[in-house]
Design goal:
TIM Barrel; Arc Repressor Mutant, subunit A; 2 domains; nine-stranded mixed β-sheet; globular
Length: about 375
């Protein structure tokens, strides 16, 4: 099983909190970029060693900017050069303002069967300081429109821990998307990243991030509200109706292989990781010149052990002791830490699988880091 990630580095405008790789001035070279990505798909067919493709994911940027012909070109390259399961999950990230009857018809025509919609908030004030291109009304209407076009596999993104977002407002946002009938919700705490407008505003005192206590309160409110309404938390930030887990993202957390194409895209094949150059012009030049557009890191057993902990502990699947032991012996100091986390109520163990509890998920990164092998092990 494997997946393909296609990074579309185009956006209408820059959100204040975003540090992903994209450009807002792309019209002069959009065809060249799409053709370059198509070429990379052809030239890297050996990377996945013939594994069947179970998921194709258009991310970015804003891939919903692409027209039907551009999407069709890229999907044709995938279907021509790779063994794609006829029932493969094909996801397109989109903003609410891009969802129109015409666009939905185009997406259906090319085979997209899952939409990931970046709602983020229903609060007009938040959407404005985020510099989002859509309104609260468009957030509500786009899901209704998508379902009317028979897109039943829908996920929406929400953000919590926003400045001045009360717990009452946050719960209202959660209940809104539940009432919309979506099958999957991804909820992320606002992170202030370097080299963003938001970071500049925070340093200048124009924006005051929510406290850690407020972030924790809103995370627990999220978990409890969705649980009551029949959603399962299968990964720290991801919740779904039974049977509606995101195939592509689940494969990341399970350590399945994937090929990433486009500027800044990452790839993984079990023992190595590669990442493409994060510069649009250089990417296209290197593709045109048949030059390498990526760097590669060979993962040691220690690296794989640590990655397994980092990703696996975030999920309902947990981390198998047996799998860890195939990479490196579990040390006495690690056993002591596992016992410590069990006693604190942050971790539990079922049939040799390490799992985080609800309270432990608030400290997932810390717990994983504490269990990492260091450079001397």
């Amino acid at each position: 099983m494997a997946g393909i990630y296609i990074h579309i580095p185009f956006c209408k405008q820059q959100c204040t909190y975003c540090d992903f790789h994209f450009s807002t001035t792309f019209e002069g070279y959009r065809s060249e970029m799409v053709n370059a990505i198509a070429t990379e798909l052809r030239t890297r067919i050996d990377y996945l060693e013939g594994k069947p493709i179970e998921s194709i994911y258009f991310g970015g940027g804003t891939p919903s900017i692409l027209n039907e012909q551009e999407l069709s070109l890229l999907l044709t390259e995938v279907r021509t050069n790779y063994q794609v399961n006829p029932k493969a999950e094909i996801t397109l990230e989109t903003n609410p303002d891009d969802i129109t009857q015409e666009k939905l018809t185009e997406w259906k025509n090319v085979g997209v069967n899952r939409l990931s919609i970046g709602l983020q908030s229903f609060k007009t004030e938040d959407l404005e300081w985020m510099n989002r291109a859509h309104t609260a009304d468009e957030s509500r209407n786009c899901v209704v429109l998508a379902r009317a076009h028979n897109f039943q596999n829908l996920t929406v993104d929400l953000m919590y821990g926003l400045p001045n977002l009360s717990n009452q407002e946050w719960k209202y946002h959660i209940l809104q998307v539940i009432e919309m009938g979506v099958t999957h919700i991804s909820a992320y705490c606002l992170t202030v990243e370097e080299k963003t407008v938001l970071n500049k505003w925070v340093k200048e005192g124009k924006i005051h991030p929510a406290s850690e206590n407020k972030q924790s309160e809103q995370f627990l409110l999220l978990v409890e509200t969705l649980e009551v309404h029949g959603f399962e938390q299968y990964e720290i930030s991801n919740f779904c109706r039974p049977g509606h887990e995101a195939v592509h993202n689940s494969n990341y957390w399970k350590g399945e292989w994937y090929l990433g194409v486009g500027p800044s895209a990452h790839s993984f094949n079990g023992t190595s990781r590669s990442w493409n150059i994060a510069n649009n012009q250089k990417y296209m030049q290197r593709i045109a010149g048949n030059e390498g557009c990526f760097e590669t890191e060979i993962l040691s057993n220690r690296d794989q052990y640590n990655e397994l902990l980092l990703t696996g502990l975030r999920t309902k699947y947990g981390v198998s002791r047996k799998k860890l032991a195939t990479l490196h012996a579990i040390s006495e100091s690690t056993e002591l830490k596992i016992n410590e986390f069990n006693s604190a109520g942050w971790m539990t163990e079922i049939d040799g699988v390490l799992l985080l509890t609800k309270s432990g998920r608030l400290k997932a990164d810390y717990i994983a880091a504490e269990l990492f092998l260091d450079v001397n092990e």
